TrEMBL record:
This is STAS domain-containing protein. Residues 1-131 form the STAS domain. It comes from the Bacteria. InterPro entries: Anti-sigma-factor_SerPK (IPR050267), HATPase_C_sf (IPR036890), STAS_dom (IPR002645), STAS_dom_sf (IPR036513). It comes from Actinoplanes digitatis.
């Protein structure tokens, strides 16, 4: 099952699928909680969500399985396949599971030798502590409390320039500044909340994230009209440029709002 960008996971999808996803405040770790009985539908939903999260190349993905009902450990293959897929990426995000150690699923994964590439912790707090040092501070720049005003796009763009200079990525400055400007302008126009901006290195590319205080996806996926006048899914005006220039992009709930993000890589 392939998933095409943009990778957008909304609150409605969370309610329907039994999956919830949030971003850590520093935008480098994604946390997923799985609730309900394991089924074929949940298997497909988990597969699609993991692919979307990995496309963003976070430093780690923590999956909380405490509320998953999987008495026969039928989901083991999905988590092992996810860990293998993550380890093949560059840079490689760390996939981590949390669950009680007495669960049948934990026992099966240990028998399969999965813990070599798929760490299992008892609590989410233990998992957070284990992945805290995966991203070097020198690989990430952060700007908080940007006001919802047009001048913030310029400040965020300056941060992009500093990052590209520091990391030796001069060929990405122009495109990355334009993409960041569009992300910030979209937040200013559609949310009216303060923002936090993250710029981090992702291998030969650069990650751009804008976190705002509005959990709604207004301005991310807006209704547009096709030639017949029927409503179809479309993007806000600024994000059409993001869609055209970024290698991949998406949106995801955060603890206090959402993050709209993009990755810019050199042209092949």
């Amino acid at each position: 099952m392939e998933v095409e960008p943009p990778y957008v996971f909304s609150g409605d999808q969370q309610a329907e699928s039994g999956l919830s996803v949030t971003r850590a405040p520093d935008n480098s770790v994604i946390e997923i909680a799985v609730q309900g009985r394991w089924s074929r539908r949940m298997c497909l939903d988990v597969h699609a969500l993991l692919r979307g999260c990995m496309a963003e190349r976070p430093s780690a993905i923590i999956v909380d399985l405490h509320d998953l009902s999987d008495l026969d450990a039928a989901s083991a293959g999905v988590w092992l396949a996810g860990a293998r897929a993550a380890s093949a990426l560059r840079p490689s995000p760390q996939l981590v599971l949390t669950m009680p150690p007495t669960r049948q699923l934990a026992s099966r994964l240990r028998r399969l030798g999965a813990v070599r590439i798929l760490p299992i912790f008892v609590t989410v707090e233990q998992a957070r502590a284990a992945v805290a040092d995966r991203m070097l501070l020198t690989d990430r720049l952060y700007l908080s409390r940007l006001r919802p005003e047009p001048a913030s796009a310029g400040a965020a763009g300056d941060l992009v320039t500093v990052a590209c200079d520091a990391w030796g990525l001069p060929n990405l400055v122009d495109t990355s500044r334009k993409v960041m400007s569009a992300l910030v302008t979209n937040a200013v126009e559609h949310t009216g909340t303060d923002m936090a901006v993250t710029v981090s290195r992702r291998g030969c590319g650069i990650y751009l994230g804008v976190r705002d205080g509005d959990p709604r996806l207004t301005g991310v996926l807006d209704p547009a009209a096709d030639d017949s006048g029927a409503a179809v899914r479309g993007y806000g005006e600024g994000l059409r440029m993001v869609d055209a220039r970024a290698s991949v992009w998406g949106a995801m709930p955060a603890v206090d709002g959402k993050v709209v993000w993009a990755i810019v890589r050199p042209l092949p």
